[in-house]
Amino acid sequence: MRNINKIIIAAIGCAALAFTGGTAWKMHEKYAEEQNRVRELEEQLTHLSKKEKQAAVMQSVNAQMEELANEQRIISDEQREQAEKQSRIANEMRLHAEKERQNALVAEKRALEASQVAKSQQAIAERERSQAEYSKRVADTLSYISLSQSLANTAITQYQAGNHEIADLLANVVCEYTNRYHGDIYHPRVYQALALTSQNKTVWNKHKGSVTDIAFADEKQGFFVSCSTYGEVIKHTISGNKLSSTTLISDPRYDFRDVFINRNTNAIYALSRTGELLVFKGKAIKNVKVNIEKLKGMDTANDQFVLFGEQGMALFDTEKEIILAEKRLPFVVEFYSRYQNYPVIFDRQGRMHMVKSFSKLETTNVPVKGQVTAFAESKNQKTRFYGMSDGAIYFINSKGKVVKLVGHRSRISRVKINGHRLASSSYDGTINMWMTNLPKIEPMTLFTTKGWVINFTFDLKKNYIWAGDQGGNLTRALISVQTMQQQLKAKLKRDLTREEWNYYIGRNVPYETFIRKEAKP
């Protein structure tokens, strides 16, 4: 504003000098110019005033803005400081939380370790308890199994002494304990006690001569036949303990040694030592002559039978019912059987001859010493059994180990294998059973006769053994354990009294009843 005033004063001075130095016109023009100049200056002054006001306003605004900015900076600083403080607090809290988490993890680890230790201790305790219980069970089991075997001996002794009722009661306890504690019902003493007390043997005298063979038809036909050295072939049917018999032939001119039933046609073939093969079809009988001396038996595995004599063999066609071929052998035939699906001949020089075909024999030495009189093999178990003339039986297991079984006193007439059970018959009048899967193989006598046991076989279901002896008897012996136990149970009318229990079994064994409620002492 001061500068503007100075300009105005200077302009007035200049105008006065111009007025004094020039003419009036010039003064007038100059004045007009000066007026214009003044107006311009006023306009400029007005404009500058506006600018100055605007500048002042702007300066004020700027000052306010600066003040506001300072306030905002202060607030921002406070907020930053607060944020930094909150950050420090948060960081401290995070560190504290992390420390707490680590502490929690350590605590959790320790708790887990403690839990595992506890579980381990519990498992150890459980194992020890289970082991103790198992040991007690084993001890109890062994104790009761041992007791049952001892009682079996007592039952056998009582039966042989004629005390059949006590023998039956003790045998029943033997069966109960053996089954309950998973003992071996086929243990020789246990099985024999059961066989004796279950009344498993029935004898029928049906033949005049020695019974040499027995053969079964199929289950539907329900009959079997037997033959004898007196020229007899008899057909039988059985119902319970009743045996009904029909004689097909009885002619002492024949000496039958082998009989076979064709289960497809029901034709019956009977081979006579005298050199004849008789074919029975219904009531018709056909006699086929065989020029082989002292016929011993026939292999009937195929439609063409191989007939064996002491020094020869013949081939018989079942369809044409004729002899196809005959052959003399350079050795004496002692016994014949089957081995590896071929007929096999055992001679009297310790050799065996496999009949690969009628014209081809494969000869090897018998793997045991002595005269073989009976033979059987198990294809499933890969075992072989050689019955000898001196009463021994040689058992060759799947690994080739040879075990000598001693239980007969004279010639072995027949051996048959059924799973692990070997049955054997002998001229000493006994039929024994052997459990070949036991570490120690002992004989179990199924029954005895007064004469030689010539032959035996199983029935179709293998529940019974049927045997023929020198006296013309047919003997049926039960070998099914389940049926034996059922028959023994059916005989019992009471339980052991407490006095009998204490005497035979012992006071330390808890008294039990197996038939009914406690028996009166």
Entry summary:
The chain is an alpha+beta fold and about 525 residues long. The protein has helices spanning about 1-20, 25-160, 165-180, 190-195, 480-490, 500-505, and strands at about 200-205, 210-215, 225-230, 230-240, 240-250, 255-260, 270, 275-280, 285-290, 295-300, 305-310, 310-315, 320-330, 335-340, 340-345, 350-355, 360-365, 370-380, 385-390, 395, 400-405, 410-420, 420-425, 430-435, 445-450, 455-460, 465-470, 475-480.
Description:
It is a single chain. The chain starts with a helix and ends in a 17-residue tail after the last helix. Helix 3 packs across helix 5 and helix 4 packs across helix 5 (481-491). It has helices spanning 2-21, 24-160, 164-180, 188-197, 481-491, 498-504; strands spanning 201-205, 211-216, 224-228, 232-239, 242-250, 256-261, 268-272, 276-281, 284-289, 295-299, 304-309, 312-317, 322-328, 333-339, 342-347, 351-357, 360-365, 372-378, 383-388, 393-396, 402-405, 412-418, 421-426, 430-435, 443-448, 453-458, 464-469, 473-478. By secondary structure, the protein is of the alpha+beta class. The protein is built from six helices and 28 strands. The longest helix has 137 residues, at 24-160. 39% of the residues lie in helices and 33% in strands.
Shape verdict: elongated
- Overall average residue pLDDT: 86
Strand proportion, as a percent range, falls in 25-35%
Q: What fraction, in percent, of the residue positions are helical? A: 25-40%
The residue ranges in which pLDDT falls below 50 over 5 or more consecutive positions are 517-521
* Major sheet description: 4 strands, antiparallel
Strand order of the largest sheet: 1-28-27-26
Number of strands: 28
Radius of gyration: 61 Å
Distance between the termini: 151 Å
Secondary structural class: alpha+beta
Number of helices: 6
